[in-house]
Amino acid sequence: MSLRDILTKLAETEEPILLNDGDQDWKAGDLLGSLSEPRLKTPAHMQPGMYIAEINDRGYLGRILYRVKAS
């Protein structure tokens, strides 16, 4: 699953959450419109209620991209 897939699903279901990148809070739809194409293609995993993390080349969870916050 890509970061785009995760963000699209969140935006379509209008989940009442914000995603925090360490600097600011974002709505999923806003990230879809502002991230670069290569970033949106990043393999990722969402742990519901906790975070979205990269999946590295070996198939393991990498760094956390966004922490999930209730809005």
Structure description:
This protein has 71 residues and is α+β, with helices and mostly antiparallel strands. The protein has one domain (3-70). 31% of the residues lie in helices and 35% in strands. It has 3 helices and 5 strands. The protein has helices spanning 3-13, 28-34, 37-40; strands at residues 17-20, 25-26, 44-47, 51-55, 61-70. A 5-stranded antiparallel sheet has the order 2-1-5-4-3. A hairpin with a 4-residue loop joins strand 1 and strand 2. The longest helix is centred in the N-terminal third of the chain and has 11 residues, at 3-13. It is globular and about 35 Å long. It starts with a helix and ends with a strand. The model has no long low-confidence stretch (mean pLDDT 95).
* Pattern of helices and strands: HEEHHEEE
Kindly report the spatial arrangement of strands forming the biggest sheet: 2-1-5-4-3
- Helicity level: 25-40%
% residues in beta strands: 35-45%
Please tally the helical runs, counting DSSP H or I stretches of 4 or more residues. 3
Let me know the average pLDDT: 95
Low-confidence stretches: none
Instruction: Report the sheet with the most strands, covering strand number, pairing sense and barrel closure.
Output: 5 strands, antiparallel
**CA radius of gyration:** 11 Å
**Count of distinct structural domains:** 1
- Large-scale geometry: globular
**Structure classification:** alpha+beta
Task: Count the E strands.
Answer: 5
The N- to C-terminal Cα distance equals 24 Å
